[in-house]
Amino acid sequence: MGFEDKRIAIIGGGLGGMSFLNAALYAGLKNIQLYEQAPQFAEVGAGVNITSNANRVLDAFGLQESMTRKSSRKLPCYMEYHNYKNGEYLGHIEEFSQPPARLLHRAHLLDSLKERVPESCLNLGKHLASIERNTDAGAAPYTLKFQDGSTTEADIVIGCDGIKSNVRRDMGLADSPNYSGQVVYRGFVDYKDLPEETAQLLRKTVNFRGPQRHVLILPIGNQETGTDRAAIIGFMSETLDSWDSESWMSRSEISSLHEHVRDWCPQVQDIIEGLRKGSPDGRMLKQALYVRDPLDKWYEMKSGQKDSGIILLGDSAHSTLPHQGQGTCMAIESGIALATILRHWKNDDLESAFQFYQNLRKPRTDRVTQTSFEAGKLASSDSPDEMNNTFNPDALSERMKWIMEYNVLEDLRAKGADVLDFHDSRL
Ligand SMILES: Cc1cc2nc3c(=O)[nH]c(=O)nc-3n(C[C@H](O)[C@H](O)[C@H](O)COP(=O)(O)OP(=O)(O)OC[C@H]3O[C@@H](n4cnc5c(N)ncnc54)[C@H](O)[C@@H]3O)c2cc1C
């Protein structure tokens, strides 16, 4: 049974959509197409941290070797904290569980996610404009209309089109994302553009913890493949007055980040210099951080048809602030959950399958959204002078353990025992 032969359309080929496509192929869904608006696959920003909970899923797809080849190697701990002003070591968090976190360039992760996908499933330059819900007898449940005038038919639509999702709007959800009060400056530095001592320090994942702002360094890539660089993510409190809030994103002068950290320690000044050396126009990416409130219902059913519907996945359904590095990781977990449920559901009632999926995922993604907001507060400090006394990395680690130690594959096996038919499952 299940929905193995249904025409499934994925909207959006970001890390969420591509993870779901891998999951769908792994689970054995046969009739699946992905539509991405951009003319080619690309990712905004430099680095991404994929933690153990998500690597368990990607390893099941067979991507361990491919990702490890591209990631930074032998990181001594999960995160090390330093005082913003004098650079003093404040403590660290150990890696949580196996497989360890992998830190890599976003484009490299996307390359890994493309490796096992047949070209015939991928449709680029397809900006979804609207979804027609057909009522004529014999017509396909949905006609997807793209901006270039083309159309396609589908039985099930998966909206993986990010926090500004058109699919979500098309479902009548009119809520607006909330500005977090923070912007992020994103760029990367070549280790050769840093003094040796600073380069050594930044070969670890480091957080310079400052007053209502912090600078995070993720080592991405490795020397063996000539791809090693440090991704720099500066989280700064700013009001949105001067922003074009429609775009959320701009190229900003590196000096604008420098203004925030002018009196910070020498290592942070080295980072600013390194950013300048690597940026011919003296600019870097600046992005306003938005998040949506958790959504009550992630899907809609096609009226009069029990095996057709639309559902959201990734940032379109469960966006989160990035302070626990979990947006993509949640999409990866949700992807394997939804694909497995669609493939192995015991009957043809799609609504009960969607509801089971939502019940499995929503408590966890809502909790991640809430705790990521809190983690953002803890990553910086309200009172820098007391910072060294009050800061406790062990407590931070304890707060995140439940995220990293979770195994969605086991959870699916346990909770799905009565409703999923596992006889030909690879789970
Ligand atoms: C500063 C920062 C750091 C982060 N760090 C981490 C981290 O370390 N680890 C982690 O797990 N997460 C991290 N995240 C979160 C992560 O980036 C997102 O959660 C993740 O990229 C969401 O993936 P998505 O595919 O759901 O959405 P998106 O990445 O937004 O992708 C949506 C895709 O849909 C396409 N699209 C949009 N509209 C249409 C349309 N109408 N028709 C067709 N295609 C469309 C877009 O072109 C895009 O390719 C971070 C986020 C930020 C801002």
TrEMBL record:
Cleavable signal peptide: none
Keywords from the named record: FAD, Flavoprotein, Membrane, Oxidoreductase, Transmembrane, Transmembrane helix
GO biological process, one term: secondary metabolite biosynthetic process
Organism: Penicillium brasilianum
Protein's name in the database: FAD-binding domain-containing protein
InterPro entries to which the protein is assigned, alphabetical: FAD-bd, FAD/NAD-bd_sf, FAD_monoxygenase
Listed transmembrane segments: 7-29
Ranges in coiled-coil conformation: none
